């Protein structure tokens, strides 16, 4: 198990994005403290996997950040916090952190993204550096970022509430579980694209 | 990519200059904007990017505001429709500042094209036509019904389209005929040429409205478009209205209004 480097269509060529997924994390409180203390070594997007339904959803959030960054429209301090907020269908930033960021004591499964922008002359950590750092500080079991692994973490009651999927006519008409999940993902991605605008 | 005529003649939005597994393709160029086919996140996920370039003759602040309002209005209507189960493309991403909207690629061809191909392929001689008539019409009637029910669902949702023509509906290629990422035409048997879901597109002029008048105008515009582009299928428009009625409870009042709208249309054309 190592760090995954994501390749995405139409990502700015200067972006390098690494991804990891840890389950059964016991030190979310420590991680949260590093974020609150603005510890520069902890510039990561930490995502609570219980509010995520698929890998595609994560890639989608990442893409949306690249899109707003392009026109200088970040709503939060940096690209990592922006990833967490871009998972939200609404405009409320504090609520987005609460729902998709880590909550000490509650968050167990964490999806982590590290975005590096390769600017000339800047020292850029390698994938190995990032992985070593994560292994040292995230106390949990690394798993691949796959739909199967995400499936085991999803809290559907939460997801349905956050994305207002309850009573959506589009879902009620679908009989098979896989089809309904796919359409739910599509509705989620559509509402992330709108960002409550 | 940057050397292809489509990319130099009309500069694409910046996003399309970034690396992707296949070069973007300019699909349509209208008065208001352009439509490109490109990929979303993964090489095997095609998407449509609708781009409204800024208009140099408009004041920049006004231009930015109009573009933003239009992109967001179209995206909101698509979101609402999708959630309500109206067959429309999903929205993947929006950049209202850069003036584009990225959505699901609907694999297929405009209904207009499919109907014309189908009508064109009919036997030429009158005798052969009469003979083929009864067997022939079933797929076309079924298509009319799918169109009517898509519009019924749209109106039920509280949205009127504003530019309902057979070019703004795509007959989605049934899944088993789909070949991801290509625009090429698969050879399809004649009997199956009109199969597939009807997906409504182009909500650039759509509004949220529950007015009978607005709904009737939607139907009238389609009826007129039908008469001029598919005269041989005109008599089948009744099937659209029939299935609209079956899908949408408030249809009878709209159809009564349609009578008025037709009347006004006729008067106007007599005067003009
Ligand atoms: N989501 C889509 N999937 C596939 N083709 C599309 C999609 N959206 C538009 N098109 C194609 O591009 C053309 C122009 O798009 P449209 O939204 O109708 O823009 P316009 O406002 O310029 O008419 C359509 O007639 C259709 O052929
Ligand atoms: Mg159009």
TrEMBL record, chain A:
Alphabetized, the UniProt keywords read:
Kinase, Nucleus, Transferase, tRNA processing
Q: What is its main location?
A: nucleus
> Pfam family of this protein, just one?
CGI-121
Q: Does the keyword Protease apply?
A: no
Q: Which GO terms describe its biological process?
A: tRNA threonylcarbamoyladenosine modification
Free-text function comment from the UniProt entry: Component of the EKC/KEOPS complex that is required for the formation of a threonylcarbamoyl group on adenosine at position 37 (t(6)A37) in tRNAs that read codons beginning with adenine. The complex is probably involved in the transfer of the threonylcarbamoyl moiety of threonylcarbamoyl-AMP (TC-AMP) to the N6 group of A37. CGI121 acts as an allosteric effector that regulates the t(6)A activity of the complex. The EKC/KEOPS complex also promotes both telomere uncapping and telomere elongation. The complex is required for efficient recruitment of transcriptional coactivators.
The entry assigns this protein to a family as follows:
Belongs to the CGI121/TPRKB family.
Question: What SUPFAM superfamilies does the database record attribute to this sequence?
Answer: PF0523-like (SSF143870)
GO MF annotations, alphabetized: kinase activity
Q: What is this protein called?
A: EKC/KEOPS complex subunit CGI121
Under the heading InterPro entries, the entry gives: CGI121/TPRKB, CGI121/TPRKB_sf
**Subcellular locations according to the entry:** Nucleus
Q: Which GO CC annotations does the UniProt entry carry?
A: cytosol; EKC/KEOPS complex; nucleus
From TrEMBL, chain B:
Its recorded reaction(s) are: L-threonyl-[protein] + ATP = O-phospho-L-threonyl-[protein] + ADP + H(+); L-seryl-[protein] + ATP = O-phospho-L-seryl-[protein] + ADP + H(+)
What Pfam families does its record include? Pkinase
| GO cellular component entries | chromosome, telomeric region; cytosol; EKC/KEOPS complex; nucleus
What are the record keywords, sorted? Activator, ATP-binding, Chromosome, Cytoplasm, Hydrolase, Kinase, Nucleotide-binding, Nucleus, Phosphoprotein, Serine/threonine-protein kinase, Telomere, Transcription, Transcription regulation, Transferase, tRNA processing
The terms under GO molecular function for this entry are: ATP binding; hydrolase activity; protein serine/threonine kinase activity
- Report the residue ranges that make up the Protein kinase domain in this protein: 21-272
User: What is stated as this protein's family in its record?
Assistant: Belongs to the protein kinase superfamily. BUD32 family.
NCBIfam families in the cross-refs: arch_bud32 (TIGR03724)
Entry protein name: EKC/KEOPS complex subunit BUD32
Q: Which organism is it from?
A: Diplogelasinospora grovesii
């Amino acid at each position: 198990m190592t760090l995954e480097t994501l390749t995405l269509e139409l990502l700015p060529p200067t972006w390098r994005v690494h991804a990891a997924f840890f389950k059964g994390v016991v030190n979310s409180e420590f991680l949260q403290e590093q974020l609150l203390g603005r510890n520069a070594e902890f510039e990561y997007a930490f995502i609570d996997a219980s509010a995520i339904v698929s890998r595609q959803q994560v890639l989608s959030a990442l893409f949306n950040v690249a899109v707003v960054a392009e026109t200088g429209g970040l709503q939060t301090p940096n690209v990592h916090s922006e990833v967490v907020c871009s998972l939200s269908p609404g405009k409320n930033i504090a609520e987005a952190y609460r729902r998709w960021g880590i909550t000490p004591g509650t968050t167990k499964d964490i999806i982590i993204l590290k975005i590096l922008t390769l600017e000339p002359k800047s020292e850029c950590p390698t994938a190995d550096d990032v992985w070593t750092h994560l292994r040292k500080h995230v106390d949990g079991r690394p798993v691949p970022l796959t739909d199967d692994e995400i499936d085991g973490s999803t809290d559907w009651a939460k997801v349905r509430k956050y994305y207002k999927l309850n009573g959506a006519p589009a879902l009620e008409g679908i009989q098979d579980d896989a089809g309904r999940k796919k359409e739910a993902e599509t509705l989620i991605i559509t509402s992330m694209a709108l960002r409550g605008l | 990519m940057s050397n292809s005529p489509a990319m130099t003649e009309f500069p694409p939005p910046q996003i399309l200059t970034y690396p992707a597994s296949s070069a973007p393709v300019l699909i349509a160029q209208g008065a208001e904007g352009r439509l490109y086919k490109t990929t979303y996140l993964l090489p095997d996920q095609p998407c449509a990017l609708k781009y409204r370039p800024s208009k140099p003759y408009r004041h920049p602040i006004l231009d930015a505001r109009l573009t933003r309002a239009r992109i967001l209005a179209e995206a909101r209507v698509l979101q609402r429709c999708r959630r309500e189960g109206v067959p429309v493309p999903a929205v993947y991403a929006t950049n209202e500042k850069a003036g584009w909207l990225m959505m699901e690629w609907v694999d297929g061809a405009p209904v207009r094209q499919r109907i014309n191909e189908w009508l064109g392929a009919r036997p030429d001689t009158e005798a052969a036509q009469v003979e083929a008539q009864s067997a022939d019409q079933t797929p076309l009637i079924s298509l009319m019904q799918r169109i009517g029910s898509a519009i019924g669902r749209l109106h039920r949702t509280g949205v009127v389209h504003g530019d309902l023509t057979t070019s703004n509906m795509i007959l989605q290629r049934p899944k088993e005929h789909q070949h991801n990422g290509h625009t090429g035409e698969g050879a399809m048997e004649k009997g199956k040429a009109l199969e597939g879901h009807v997906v409504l597109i182009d909500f650039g002029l759509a509004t949220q409205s529950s007015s009978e008048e607005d709904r009737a105008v939607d139907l009238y515009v389609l009826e007129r478009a039908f008469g001029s582009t598919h005269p041989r299928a005109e008599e089948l428009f009744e099937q659209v209205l029939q299935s609209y009625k079956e899908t949408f409870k408030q249809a009878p009042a709209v159809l009564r209004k349609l009578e008025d709208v037709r009347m006004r249309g006729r008067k106007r054309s007599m005067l003009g």
